[in-house]
Write a structure and sequence with these properties.
Length: 113
């Protein structure tokens, strides 16, 4: 049986030196200006979510254990995002819509992938 090759994380993408504005229309047709001058991109292949009554905490990291049969995995945490449950619900709705659109274009995603 051939051994799987580890994924190579994508190289970080640097924001341009100048601020770039993007505009996104929301349901109420309000315009949101997004300044991308200090945006950073990171590769993450693992997420863990916990919650309290007042906040949702998402930890993003990189799984550095490539042996799928291992009993332990080494994960290097890179980012922690803390948000209100209201913001988390909006995120969940947006991700659900995005995944549905993706599957409509490219086919169903399986949990094991």
């Amino acid at each position: 049986m051939a051994q799987e090759k580890p994924e190579t994380p994508a190289a970080p993408v640097k924001a341009p030196a100048e601020a770039v504005e993007t505009r996104a229309a929301t349901a109420g047709e309000q315009q949101i200006r997004m300044n991308t001058a200090s945006v950073k991109s990171s590769y993450c292949n693992m997420v863990n979510v916990t919650t309290t009554r007042e906040e949702v905490v998402m930890n993003f990291g990189v799984n550095e254990s490539w042996d799928r049969g291992a009993s332990e995995y080494d994960v290097r945490l890179e980012h922690r995002i803390v948000m209100s449950p209201f913001a988390a619900k909006r995120l969940a709705l947006m991700l659900g819509k995005l995944v549905s659109e993706y599957e409509g274009r490219y086919g169903e995603l399986n949990q094991g992938n």
